[in-house]
Amino acid sequence: MTTAVRLAEDASHPRVRVVAERRPEHSTSASAGAIWDPSYATHPDVPLWSMHTYAVLRDLETAGRPEVRLVDGVEASRREIRTPTWATNLPGFRECARAELPGGFLSGWRYRAPIVDMPAYLGYLRNRFLATGGTIEAGRFESLEQALDRSPTVINCTGIGARELVPDPAVEPIRGQLVAVRNPGVTEFFAEHTDELDEMTYLLPQGDILLLGGNADKGRDDPVPDLTVARGIIERCVAVLPEIAGAEVLGHRVGIRPQRDRIRVERVDAGRGRVVVHNYGHSGAGVSLSWGCAEAVAALALG
């Protein structure tokens, strides 16, 4: 949706049509915890794309968009690690003393990050897109050739669907789950910085809701919440912040991250004057890179 908005708002671009099997509110993005953090994707342009996205989200918050909040908090590791370079120039940055960290965490840093209420934000993007005259229709393509039969320029933002559509076997599903609870008054985020693919711990305040996470099950693409996983998430989050013990559970969210060894943002000549621009493989950093990647896609599509 971000890419569609960027293209549709460019006066030099023809009419933009989004074709998707699911509506935005039923997509993987609707299940995301959506804290800005560029750690979970690989590409040389991640620093550029992530900082561009940070600036856009910051400006939306400044403009009063309720879907985006700039929140102070801590990112921490269970190992002794150096603070990532991307964090050091962010507002509110400082290193944490060991005594400031929860038990079991050995290093950490504070900064201010955008946190996005994804169900509401997707509605905002949809309305912003439709206001340009763009259209959204339900549909499914079995191949890129089918899409090219309908338009000479195709932007492939299919996420995990790229595995079959392109096809690209380098795309792997990573199943993520989180728990939404009634927020007992938490105002700062906590995010675990880890290279592991199975479990991590994070608490993301979104007003009256507090999102608890999370997990990353490689190779799983089933969307049904696992209550055993949910209990583990709650236990880990309570260990970090005991005051949330007993918070009312409001619901469970599951999404399938499109893992790839490198994000694919690339223009491909499809022959006969037709073009495909790929934009997928963002793993757990889709929101963090969304506006930067949309800018790169626009340059490729409009160039």
TrEMBL record:
Residues 2-300 form the FAD dependent oxidoreductase domain. One of its GO terms (biological process) is D-amino acid catabolic process. It comes from the Bacteria. It catalyses: a D-alpha-amino acid + O2 + H2O = a 2-oxocarboxylate + H2O2 + NH4(+). Its EC number is 1.4.3.3. The keyword Oxidoreductase applies. Its cofactor is FAD. Transmembrane segments: none annotated. It comes from Winogradskya consettensis. Keywords: FAD, Flavoprotein, Oxidoreductase. This is D-amino-acid oxidase. It holds the Pfam family DAO. It is an enzyme of class 1 (oxidoreductase). FAD binds at residues 28-29, 158. Belongs to the DAMOX/DASOX family. One of its GO terms (cellular component) is cytoplasm. D-dopa binds at residues 193, 202, 257, 284. One of its GO terms (molecular function) is FAD binding.
